[in-house]
Amino acid sequence: MEMKKVLIIGGGGGGLILANHLDTNEYDVTVVDKSDLHFYQPWFLYIAFKGSKRKISRPIGELLKPGANFVKDEISTINLNERKAYGSRKGIYNYDYLAIATGTVPDPDQIPGLRQVYDEYGDYHTSVWNSEKLWSHISKFKGGTIAIGQSSPTCKCPPSLLEGAFLLEEHLRKVGLRDKTRIVFFTPFPRAYPAEPMNKIVEPMVHERGIEVMPFFDVDTIDDQKKTITSLEGESLKYDLPIVVPPCRGTKMKIIPETVQDEDRFIKADKKLMKIEGFDDAFAIGDCNTLPTSKTGVTAHLEAMAVSEIIQGRYSEFNGRINCPFDTAYGKATFVIADYNNPVAPYPPTKVKHMMKMTMARIYWMTLMGTADPIFEQFFKFTTPEKLNKKYASAE
Questions:
Q1: 18 and 90 share one domain
Q2: Domain presence at residue 317
Q3: pLDDT of residue 89
Q4: CA distance 298 to 316
Q5: pLDDT of residue 391
Q6: So what's the pLDDT on residue 90?
Q7: Which terminus has fewer CB within 10 Å in the chain: N or C?
Q8: 228 and 130 in one domain?
Q9: Average pLDDT for residues 28-42, to the nearest whole number?
Q10: Is the residue at 34 inside a domain?
Q11: Boundary residue ending a domain (248, 269, 293)
């Protein structure tokens, strides 16, 4: 019997985990990506704020199990009605099952003036090169006002915004510049961290470290000559060093029918099955979809695990679980944990949790291959949002 063809577009965490959890004796698995390298994106943070030189990339082909194929190509168009994807270099790809796992695309051009700032200063969300660019500015900074924050409500990894502010404050204190620096964290949300249970944990830390918060700050324009960021509400923030996470959008690919994407090109998908709206043979996993949950690596991981089961004919669904590591600096960290049925748990930071986050960086490549699955299964079992909310609600 001819094997079913599974086409996975995107060699990020979600795409690779899906590929490595499919039976290549039963399925013809192909991963397509325009780059032949996979990056451990959470480490961008430590390049930008600590100047880390750790190698965080590996060839995608080396991260796939035997029997799974990798093709370096850029997909320009997908026709869901015809089960065809069109590559810029390698022609037409036919499939029986499709999974789109293309992540997000930074779009600094959405905001007037942001392109100039983005090109000059970089950021800590989008690439190794932009993180290195930002570190070059931070390492030379001598004092003044640093404006750090997000320019759009939609972004990858919500904890990373404050992680950047915390690690920045720690760095400035270590190099003796804290008293010479004003740190202003701007956010479109009403509080430092959007989810109130976690905000109760981190807001006292924000105040203790002297980080000013400008809530309800929706970035409208940036003037790189006057060095000001202006909000839609009319507030103005003057800076000496801008650290602005750009807005992000969904895939650049043309998808037929166009109705499966929203106005920001994110792909409409079922929140439990990840099936693209109107199609049983096509899925959108990870940051590229419209699921009502955080855009994070662990979320993409769990969505990919569920899709691998569904494709192989076994019942599975994604429960909305998020499990975002959150470095609060000074050797402590926590995790932002929730699911569709339970709010974010007020999980306090500890040194042990920081060690766990650092360990994740070491075993990351194992998670892509599936060899770390037993570790994750046990962790998720003992840290369900329901259990943690009951534990810490009773503690209060």
A1: yes
A2: no
A3: 87
A4: 17
A5: 87
A6: 85
A7: N
A8: yes
A9: 97
A10: yes
A11: 248
**Which structural domain, as residue segments, surrounds residue 348?**
322-395
- SS3 sequence, 24-49? CCCEEEEEEECCCEEECHHHHHHHHH
CA angle 8/10/15 to nearest 5° reads: 65
- Does residue 395 register a pLDDT over 70? no
**Separation between Cα atoms, residue 339 and residue 212, nearest integer Å:** 30
Residues 366, 356: contact at Cβ < 8 Å?
Answer: no
Give 307-366 pLDDT, tens digit per residue.
999 999 999 999 999 999 999 999 999 999 999 999 999 999 999 999 999 999 899 999
The residue type found at 252 is K
252-282 confidence digits (pLDDT tens):
999 999 999 999 999 999 999 999 999 999 9
Nearest to 84 by CA among 184, 196, 7: 7
The per-residue pLDDT of the chain, averaged, comes to 95
* 144-150/181-186 β-pairing: parallel
Residue 194 and residue 290 in one domain:
no
Tell me: the pLDDT tens digits for 61-75? 999 999 999 999 999
CA angle 243, 289, 61 (to 5 degrees): 85
Reading the block at residue 283, the tokens are 């899925």
For residue 217, the tally of other CB atoms under 10 A from its CB is 24
End-to-end CA distance of the chain: 60
In order, the DSSP letters of 167-234 are HHHHHHHHTT-GGGEEEEEE-SSSSSSSSHHHHHHHHHHHHHTT-EEE-S--EEEEETTTTEEEETTS
Tokens of 226: 């006057």
The answer to whether the beta carbons of residues 230 and 238 sit under 8 Å apart is no
Give, in degrees to the nearest 5, the angle at Cα 179 between 169 and 245.
35
3-state secondary structure of 310: helix
pLDDT of residue 96: 98
